[in-house]
Design brief:
The strands form 3 sheets. Strands 1-15-4-14-13-9 form a 6-stranded mixed beta sheet, sandwiched between helices. Strands 3-2-5-6-7-8 form a 6-stranded antiparallel beta sheet, with helices on one face. The termini are close together. It is built from 11 helices and 15 strands. It has a domain of about 180 residues: P-loop containing nucleotide triphosphate hydrolases (Rossmann fold, 3-Layer(aba) Sandwich), CATH 3.40.50.300. Helix content is about 40%, strand content about 20%. About 35% of the residues are buried. It is of the alpha/beta class.
Length: about 375
């Protein structure tokens, strides 16, 4: 059931999702939904599919689920594949996965490479489990930064994919030496490629941090009232040595451990609050403000570089934030710097109260 007010006129420079169709996607046998306002709230009881509908929107932008790395987890139970289609302004995007094969098409023309789709559409998701970005290990933070830069820099995406492939091959070579030692010519080939790509990736991460920090600082202070000072430090093995020097110096340790111990695949970002690591010393409220500031800064960064506004996806945020932070967040996303917003909540009245001064809001009840 849909309730809506007014017809949505897209913002300039905004790629707007007008309609989505789901077939055998998660808990949906089939579903068709139109988006008719700048703010859409998906309501319904827990387990009705609110988050899954948000995930389908995310899938259209990135050809993967936000919540699972395994494609088969997006298939409805008992089925062997799924299909998601979406109309973005004048373009029809279709994503199909069946029995291990994925196909992405734009206006019924399949992409030759799936990576050709990345950067054409964008979404920023804020979900309850995102606190892992602050509390968990470095891999999540690397993956988050890589996902942003892969959308804005095609060379970064290609070099990152090659780096990861060559890293796997080098690790396989290291394991092979324990049972069947060979000459080092293959190792030199791996090290040269890792050095070239790793150096580029590290340099682009430094540039990203320089451009990203002012945005993060602005949004954190708007969410928290400006009581604390925040910083983010980038930790990389390449601070002391070049990538080639690291690989050469660490070869004996790599052979013992049978994997590559140094390189940009070990980089990390430390989030600091008043000079102290947020992970260890921040309160839950401070961590939530920092997390939301990270995602809003990501939105602003992508808008600036891509030249259009991503879709902002908010999953069950009203259950996770206190009233002051909710009010601060609402003031931010109701501004002109934000475009289409799709959110979920169990209580429609709570959303109506939060967006009290906005008449262009649609409700989809599941």
């Amino acid at each position: 059931m849909c309730e809506f007010i007014k017809t949505f006129v897209p913002f300039p420079g905004l790629s707007t999702l007008k309609k989505i169709t789901l077939i055998q996607f998660r808990n949906y046998s089939s579903g068709n939904y139109e988006f008719t306002a700048p703010v859409t709230c998906i309501t319904g009881p827990n387990g009705s599919g609110k988050t899954n509908l948000l995930d389908a929107v995310y899938y259209l932008c990135y050809t993967k689920s936000y919540f699972s790395a395994y494609q088969q987890n997006s298939v409805q139970q008992g089925q062997d594949g799924f299909r998601v289609e979406g109309s973005f302004d004048q373009n029809l995007i279709s994503c199909k996965w069946k029995q291990g094969k994925k196909e992405i098409a734009a206006n019924n023309v399949p992409y030759e490479r799936l990576t050709d789709h990345i950067g054409k559409y964008a979404a920023v998701m804020i979900a309850p489990d995102d606190m892992e970005l602050i509390n968990d290990g470095s891999e999540l933070r690397r993956r988050w930064v890589d996902s942003i830069l892969s959308q804005t820099d095609r060379q970064y995406l290609e070099r990152l994919m090659r780096y990861q492939k060559i890293l796997q091959q080098r690790n396989a070579w290291l394991k092979m030496q324990a049972v069947n030692p060979t000459d080092s010519s293959q190792l030199e080939y791996y090290d040269n490629l890792l050095s070239a790509d790793g150096t580029y990736i590290q340099q682009q991460r430094l540039v990203f941090l320089r451009d990203f920090m002012p945005l993060l600082d602005e949004y954190y202070h708007r969410l928290s009232g400006g009581k604390e000072t925040i910083t983010t430090s980038y930790q990389t093995d390449l601070e002391q040595k070049t990538m080639k020097e690291l690989l050469a110096a660490g070869l004996q340790a790599d052979l013992r451990m049978q994997r590559t111990l140094k390189g940009i695949h070990k980089d990390d970002w430390t989030f600091m609050l008043d000079g102290m690591p947020l992970k260890q010393f921040g309160s839950q409220g401070q961590k939530k403000s920092y997390l939301f500031a990270l995602k809003l800064a990501q939105y602003a960064y992508l808008s600036r570089i891509l030249g259009f506004k991503p879709i902002l996806l908010l999953d069950d945020i009203f259950e996770k934030l206190d009233q002051n932070r909710i009010l601060a967040l609402m003031r931010i996303i109701r501004g002109q710097n934000f475009g289409q917003v799709i959110l979920t909540d169990t209580h429609a009245d709570r959303v109506r109260e939060a967006f009290l001064d906005i008449t262009d809001i649609q409700f989809i009840e599941l």
